[in-house]
Structures are given as structure tokens and as C-alpha cells.
Write a structure and sequence with these properties.
Shape: rod-shaped
Pfam families: HTH_38 (PF13936)
Protein name: Transposase IS30-like HTH domain-containing protein
Number of strands: 0
Largest sheet: none
Strand content: under 5%
Organism: Limosilactobacillus reuteri CF48-3A
GO molecular function: transposase activity
Distance between the termini: 66 Å
Number of domains: 2
GO biological process, one term: transposition
């Protein structure tokens, strides 16, 4: 009972056994998952449990995992302008806003 990731086949079995009135504990033991995993899976949808909808919900949530992109539309437009119009290299764009590259007051004061 170490894994908690359910396959589509597991979801079909859960749907079938749940519709037949089997207990959560029975379904969990049958599939080799914890009772909590089965309970959470049955709570995934706001309506009656359907394996296909649950799988779609799972895939959508998996695709939304991870770090969100910091590339906004305005930043993308700025980068495209610098590279295509002003003929900057990608390195120039990447370092254009770092204090070391732009010569901040802090860096100038150290030199003086």
C-alpha cells in the first residue's frame, strides 16, 4: 500500500465496485490501496463517481503542477522587440536588468 497513484483501470474498478455498493475498505483491500486513497478518489468529483471524468480531472491537475512561468505577455513582447528590432543577442536580453551589467550606483561607488 505504498503507492497512491491510481491508473485508469483502477478507477474503472473503483467505479464498478462502488456502484455495486461495496465498502471503501473492501475496494481498498481489493486494489491494494489505503482506504483514505479510495475515499479521496471518490470525493474527486462533485457528482456521482465516473472513472473517465476522474481520469480527466487527474490529468488536468497533473498538467498544472510545477513552477508557474514568469514570462508574461508584456515581458515576451519586450524580449521579442529587443531581439528582433534592436538586434540584441539572447545574452544581452538575459543580463540587461542585472545590477552588474547596467552599472548601478552601488557598483559605481565601489569603483570610485
Amino acid at each position: 500500500m505504498s503507492t497512491t497513484i491510481l491508473s485508469f483501470q483502477h478507477r474503472v474498478v473503483i467505479e464498478t465496485l462502488h456502484s455495486e455498493g461495496c465498502s471503501l475498505r473492501y475496494i481498498a483491500n481489493y486494489l491494494g490501496f489505503s482506504t483514505t486513497t479510495i475515499f479521496n478518489e471518490l470525493q474527486r468529483l462533485n457528482s456521482e463517481y465516473q472513472a473517465e471524468l476522474a481520469q480527466t480531472d487527474f490529468e488536468q491537475k497533473v498538467s498544472q503542477r510545477g513552477r508557474k512561468s514568469s514570462l508574461t505577455k508584456s515581458l515576451k513582447h519586450l524580449i521579442e522587440e529587443k531581439i528582433q528590432v534592436q538586434k540584441w543577442s539572447p545574452e544581452q536580453v538575459a543580463h540587461a536588468y542585472s545590477p552588474h551589467e547596467r552599472g548601478s550606483n552601488e557598483n559605481r561607488n565601489r569603483v570610485l
